[in-house]
Write a structure and sequence with these properties.
The complex is a heterodimer of chains A (445) and B (288). Chain A is of the alpha/beta class and 445 residues long. Helix content of chain A is 37%, strand content 20%. Chain A has two domains: 225 residues, Response regulator (Rossmann fold), CATH 3.40.50.2300; 146 residues, Rossmann fold (3-Layer(aba) Sandwich), CATH 3.40.50. In chain A, strands 1, 2, 3, 4, 5, 6 and 7 form a seven-stranded mixed beta sheet that branches. Chain A has a seven-stranded mixed beta sheet with strand order 9-8-10-11-12-16-17, with helices on both faces. The longest helix of chain B is centred in the first third of the chain and has 34 residues. The chains are: A alpha/beta (445), B mainly alpha (288). Chains A and B meet through helix 1, strand 9, helix 7 and helix 8 of A and helix 1, helix 3, helix 4, strand 2 and helix 10 of B.
């Protein structure tokens, strides 16, 4: 028996080691050190020109390698890393005094857990000496990180976090890249008013910080536009059985569903709606349909719409910036998408674009400040008004809502079938950037 | 009137789901009944059953219901391995030891599976359609899952009451020392019982995968439900577990009719506490 136990235990250990080697590291991850020129110890006959000073700026963030935010969080990190590698490979940023700034990063797995986020951001600041911070993915986790960042006066560029409330607590160090949650659904409601002003709306959403803020933001707008809300129902994070909710939705007489939350619940809700065929004309869900994995649902994905912070088909351009009279910065959307595709083999989602934009905005702020001094960078961020492929970037500088994003606009995307019968995500609103007409009402199979 | 219609619409869903919950809880309660071990690895094993369906159906194209056979066999073998590696040595130790042992197994399975499979959601795109029964929609996958759950319960009942190993299991459950004196190989019977418990967990997970998305952490919720069902039906009582599962399924079906779904776990676990206080042996009595 002892021999058998020993063999089993050995097998377990060996398989653990093999799998661990394939899996994400629990240790903090750092970028490979930037190449620096070793100072020569050999005496020289003539005095060479002084080599430019090189500074390495450490950016700290947590990512959800495990847990409910994993899918979107990993994409956000990939976007950020693409930006960092591109900047470092291009030789870094050169300031006016000749200093070359390169970037490194420290990150930990926050397990999609707010308490871990607070512990880890404290560690990033106090032990890892991160110079600047980027938020984790999701409003709930970012809210936890923002408290630590603000307490320590660290600049926190938030991406993947749309909740408005975080910016209305008298902070001075937060800078939001996403369109605030309260404005998430406004383009969709405008579109609905054009398509079907008599639509009866059900609001079914995850009872978390982000989704609740989106719904609370859209309720007065729906009332202004004269829509009747027949059902308002929150559901707990982690809900998988949407049968009872969909039954309630059917009984409410709603013709349009606006809601959802994040990836896991959004896919489960879409699947249940498809299975039960309750005759909804239009379904809009937050976050999940924006992911490239969403078509794994098959026909259940058809007609599902979502708001998107960025879409390649509606990417922002230098020409648009010129027309608006604001400064353009960074690569084109096509270049960004091609670089991401080459690096990760996947087309980028808006979560990727958000991660990349976080780095891009920090880069621009350092250039504008001509310094890596946090206070100078903060001032540059406060004064920022520019256009990137990701969209407009300008922050509210009032005391009431410091850091809230005020220039970035969203588009409405919908899964439709192309001529070959494949599911593709197309832009259906606003009209000036739409690539396709909305599928309304969504056909029943 | 609208509330009653909604109630009647949601009730079949709850009943069908309740049968599957019952099978999951039966696994937990069987292990507790036979050896007084609370198997904290129950949740991850349910999740492994879900992944079994995913890989057999998505990667190998095997029908999810045919796939139940290899999943059940793998679940049984996994349970026997877990028993001999983690449980056997602490079987006579205080409850805390076996609790920690199975918790360790729980952490090992979650750790390994997270490294290999991540915690991204997986989806088995399998449908049997559905049909209308009054205002209710009966989904084929839930109906078949409920029928399989009934078959599994019947088979377990026949095994326990009509076969020699089943009788040995009942003998060990009633009095292990006396059973050993009568020549019952108690160690093998305990291992078999643990294997049967994990087999039921894996089968319930495999059935759940046909209607809900999942990841390796998804089993945790069903493990908690299994505890509630176990207490409702009486720990150690497999038939009580099935009825407890039905009660829980019905509650999950009808509670959202009257209040927000967020209240479902509050009421479920409230009931758990009330049953523990008022009728600690469960509604249908403990071990039989």
């Amino acid at each position: 028996m002892k021999k058998v136990l020993f063999v089993l235990f050995t097998l377990l250990i060996v398989s653990s080691m093999l799998l661990s080697a394939c899996g994400p590291s629990a240790e903090p991850t750092t970028a490979p050190p930037a190449e620096t020129q070793e100072p020569s110890e050999e005496p020289v006959a003539t005095q060479p020109p002084a080599a430019p000073e090189e500074k390495t700026v450490v950016i700290g963030f947590t990512s959800s390698l495990t847990g409910s935010q994993e899918v979107s969080s990993k994409r956000q990190v990939n976007g950020f890393l693409l930006w960092m590698n591109q900047v470092n490979e291009a030789g870094g940023i050169t300031l006016s005094d000749g200093t070359v700034v390169k970037f490194d990063y420290k990150t930990y797995d926050d397990e999609s857990n707010g308490e871990r986020v607070q512990e880890l951001y404290t560690r990033l600041i106090s032990e890892d000496n991160a110079d600047f911070l980027i938020s984790p993915y999701s409003s709930g986790l970012t809210s936890a990180a923002s408290i630590v960042a603000e307490q320590n006066g660290k600049v926190l560029i938030t991406t993947g976090a749309a909740d408005d409330a975080t910016y209305k607590t008298g902070n001075t160090s937060l800078f939001q890249l996403y369109t605030p949650g309260s404005l998430y659904m406004s383009s969709t409601v405008d579109m609905l008013q054009q398509l079907d002003p008599e639509a009866k709306v059900a609001l079914v959403y995850e009872s978390d910080k982000f989704s609740t803020s989106v719904v609370e933001g859209i309720k007065p707008y729906l009332a202004d536009k004269g829509f009747e809300v027949t059902l308002e129902e929150g559901y707990a994070s982690g809900t998988t059985d949407f049968g009872p909710i969909v039954n309630k939705l059917a009984a409410s007489g709603a013709t349009v569903l606006l809601g959802g939350g994040h990836y896991e619940d959004g896919t489960a809700l879409a699947r249940t709606l498809y299975e039960r065929q309750i005759g909804l004309k239009f379904v809009y869900l937050l976050v999940a349909p924006a992911d490239t994995k969403f078509p794994e649902l098959g026909d259940a994905a058809l007609g599902i719409a979502t708001s998107s912070q960025w879409e390649l088909k509606a990417t922002h351009t230098e020409e648009e910036a010129a027309n608006l009279g604001i400064e353009w910065f960074g690569p084109t959307g096509e270049d960004f998408a091609a670089a991401y595709q080459a690096a990760y083999g996947d087309p980028p989602t808006y979560h990727v674009a958000g991660g990349y934009a976080a780095g891009l905005v920090l880069q621009k702020a350092i250039l504008d400040a001509d310094s890596v001094d946090p206070e100078a960078v903060k001032a540059a961020l406060n004064a920022m008004n520019l256009m990137t492929f990701y969209g407009g970037i300008q922050f509210d500088t009032s005391e009431a809502a410091h850091g809230l994003q005020i220039a970035h606009k969203m588009v409405v995307a919908q899964w439709q079938k192309n001529d070959a019968g494949e599911l593709v995500r197309v832009i259906i609103a606003p009209a000036d950037v739409a690539t396709n007409d909305p599928l309304y009402p969504v056909p029943t199979p | 009137m609208q509330q009653i219609t909604l109630l009647l619409t949601s009730l079949p869903d709850g009943i069908l789901l309740g049968f599957v919950y019952g099978v999951a809880a039966m696994g937990l309660t069987l292990i507790w009944g036979v050896m007084n071990v609370i198997n904290l690895a129950h949740g991850p094993i349910i999740a492994l059953g879900m992944f079994g369906t995913f890989f057999l159906f998505i990667r190998l194209g095997i029908n999810p219901y045919l796939g139940l056979v290899p999943i059940a066999i793998a679940g049984l073998l996994l349970g026997v391995v877990i028993y001999f590696t983690a449980v056997h040595r602490v079987i006579n130790a205080p409850h805390l030891s076996s609790l920690l042992a199975t918790f360790s197994v729980n952490m090992i399975i979650i750790g390994l599976a997270t490294a290999a499979l991540t915690t991204s959601p997986y989806n088995v795109d399998f449908s049997l359609g559905g049909f209308k029964l009054g205002s209710a929609t009966i989904l084929g996958t839930r109906l078949v899952a409920a029928l399989i759950a009934i078959l599994v319960t019947g088979a377990l009942y026949l095994f326990l009451y009509r076969t020699r190993p089943g009788k040995f299991i009942r003998a060990v459950t009633n009095n292990r020392a006396a059973a050993e004196l009568m020549g019952v190989p108690s160690t093998r019977i305990l291992a078999l019982s643990f294997g049967l418990g994990t087999m039921l967990a894996a089968v319930s997970g495999a059935l759940i995968a046909t209607f809900f998305p999942f990841n390796i952490l998804s089993g945790g919720g069903y493990e908690l439900k299994s505890f509630v069902i176990g207490v409702l039906g009486g720990l150690g009582n497999p038939i009580g577990a099935l009825i407890g599962g039905l009660i829980l399924g019905v509650l999950e079906g009808i509670i959202p009719t009257f209040m927000e779904t967020s209240w479902v776990p509050v009421i479920e676990f409230g009931l758990f506490v009330v049953i523990l206080l008022v009728r600690p042996k469960g509604l249908f009595g403990a071990k039989k």
